[in-house]
Amino acid sequence: MAEELSADAGKGLKALGINCTLKRSPATSNTEALMTRVLGILSEHGVETEILRPVDYAIKFGVTSDEGDGDEWPQILEKVKEADILLMGMSIWFGVRSSVCQMVIERLDGTYNETNDVGQYPLYNKVAGVVVTGNEDGAHASAETTLFNMTHLGCVVPPNADTYWVGEAGPGPSYLEADGEDHPYTRRTSSWCAHNLLHMARILREHPIPPIGNTLEEHGGDSVHVG
Q1: pTM as predicted
Q2: Where are the domains of the chain?
Q3: On the chain, which terminus has fewer CB atoms closer than 10 Å, C or N?
Q4: In the CATH hierarchy, which fold is given to the domain comprising 14-209?
């Protein structure tokens, strides 16, 4: 018989949604609408949730954790480090993930020069998932690249950790306008995404990945950059 999740199953866990839309707040974001469904399910089980848009911050281009001179990326990075679940959201432009998402991944590269309390990368024992919206194709490519990036940064990716909605070929209505919230496949995958992120976060909270064999100190402490 399947385990019933209690309303406080995720109590004590934090989920951060990073909405890499090109639209500044408070403009309507289709990506955020789908992210809200995933985070809403997590919230129903006691997870503390938050969504932010990097475009609302003054973020400099670079691959360090602080590019100085007014760079506001450190504010976002602090929230990333505090979260147990990271939900990356992005829109599709020209068939690939948004430039904002690419910039976020590039800035997370800076964490390769840091460690957690046991000598692992700071994103170890965090769980990652992806939400993608757009027209035509590009959802699979956006999700697979981003999830691969997140695993390299230290995150764990559970099964079915992505959900997406894409419209028909050519210009047309987006997720909200097309009533994507009622699309059976997207509803199913967003539920799987939320529940599997929660299950894996609970597992890692009780049984974190041990530092044996995967600390920087064991391998000379050299920093690593992907690019």
Answers
A1: 0.92
A2: 14-209
A3: N
A4: Rossmann fold (3.40.50)
